[in-house]
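Exercise: predict the fold of this chain.
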Amino acid sequence: MVELGERPVIFGGAIVAACSWDLAATWPRIVVPDNPSGYRFDFARGLDWLVLARHKHDVAHIAAVVHALRTAGARVVVPVLLPALQK
């Protein structure tokens, strides 16, 4: 699909990688486990990614997700820290 120039319509063509199941539940996304090093992210190659997490999320997990996507050949990887939920 990427080779044909097809990209998602939302987020300027980026794919969302959420660091937990409670993030972006209504958006098309993947949810990345706590230790992404045991997974293959070959499908990320050539794509742009938004890595979503909350400010209180484990920084090491966010960094590991960014690293895994970049290592797999993602074109652009942007971590986005969302505000804490208000009660």
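Check your answer against the key: The chain has one helix and four strands.
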